[in-house]
Design brief:
The complex is a heterodimer of chains A (155) and B (406). Chain A is mainly α and 155 residues long. Chain A contains six helices and four strands. A three-stranded antiparallel β-sheet of chain A has the order 1-2-3, with no helix packed on it. The chains are: A mainly alpha (155), B mainly beta (406).
Chain lengths: 155, 406
Amino acid sequence: MDQEKTFRNQVKKIYRLLIILFSLFVITGGGLVYYMVNPDIFDNKSKTVIAIPADIDEDLIENGIHVRTGLVNAEGLMTVVNNCTNCHSSKLVTQNRMTTERWNETIKWMQETQNLWDLGKNQDIIVNYLVTNYPPIAKGRRMVLKDINWYELSN
Amino acid sequence: MKRRDFVKKATLSSFATLIGTELVFGSQMLKGYTPLALQDPDPFKMFNKNKEMIVLNDKPWNIEAQAHLLDDKITPNSCMFIRNNGLIPENIDPKEWSLTIDGESVKNKKIYTLAELKSKFKHHSYQLTLECGGNGRSEFDPPAKGNQWTVGAVHCASWTGIRLRDILEDVGIKNDAVYIGYHATDKHLSMDPNKEPISRGCPMSKALQDETILAFKMNGEDIPVVHGYPLRLVAGGWPASVSGKWVNRISVRNKIHDGTKMTGTAYRVPCKPVAPGEKVKDEDMCIIESMPVKSIITYPKTGALISKGKSLNIRGHAWAGELEVSKMEYSIDFGSTWKTCSLEKPSNRLAWQHFSASVNFPKPGYYEVWARATDTNSIAQPMLLPGWNPKGYLNNACHRIAIKVK
């Protein structure tokens, strides 16, 4: 009698274990199938928590400006981007307004002291881009005050 | 492969090395998400700067103030300009930091740990005016090469440290010493380890002044990394490039120091005056020493609209390199007449001085308030640009603000 009871209990235990295992299998399998159908599920989840808006396209041009560097989109743009924004920021380029002669001198100085490579045929393309799009502005001995943001001051 | 993607992938694989496993979904992450460590940095957060500071350059970092941001008597970190020639050092360990004193004119080379410097020598605090040699460069015509600073590359913070003289005396210097030159841990933009971004210095007479210090505190706290933590040479009144950041070696030279940016045209002006745009040979360029007399109106911000019949209180700072400012004036009629401002004495030598005045306008209309400082040698600021020079240094022309009276 006792032996039979014990045997039945063991069978029940095994039966329960099998059900649990089978349920787990079904759940996991279902989950995997769902993931195969909706592969973005984890992506979306992480986006809502930590994702930051997508990185800007490296070559994106908006309103005539190369977004990544702020340089004007014109003939020679990518030659300038590829040769002039490796060591320093494009901001150093756009801040400076020089003539052909002075740009050539500046390039020579960068080659002599700053490890700039030989630009070959690209030098003319680069300098032409710079003097065309960033020409010197005549400032005289003193400019008028510009871009004043007027505001009320209760003194 | 696009460069940034390559960097991302390389970084991801090093993350994987760090945590000893592949990043699950790492390749999917690339699509829409840039790990925090790889994002374009926000300089205002990174350097604790006021949002109104102007970024001139982000590689290397160069950031300037606007006039109204410099209103404090002692400039807080948030409004101090940043000037870098190279890349800011990373992973600085103050416990490992040492300062070597060497060069032809030391009796024996000596090395001090940072802790030794702090404990062995007496501490001194000074308010010191540091102005970039190229402050105001943007106004030169023909334009000069370099960062186009307007008016905000100047500050006067309180620096605490030890006198360079005390250390040099402890080391022992020979009679033939002429110049000191600093060396630091910043990296050259080209990443060439054999190049120093900048290594300048000053003659012994300046090096031995009471106020020439090796600072480890700025405004009472550790110097921010971008301003030279853990050790900065501070030599007030001279181009700020003499005040080397992240200094780990000082060479006592028996000749004028010949480090990077000491030679050629860097921090030099023509020895004799030249016409605008004229070419100047390297040998005809002379090293800038003391900065010229200058002032800035820090209140009100330019563009104030005020009511008729009300007086306008203005204030600001004035400085004169090695000298003191003896007189401060303002004009509301483009220099036809000048009125005197009240002017405070400097809190110590080489600190900027504070001025203020109450300005009355005769009738409604557009005005400019111009400020002019005069130094103890009776040299005043010019209203026009001073002598043109190839690199656009030393523009000490009068500062002015626009005012409308209704």
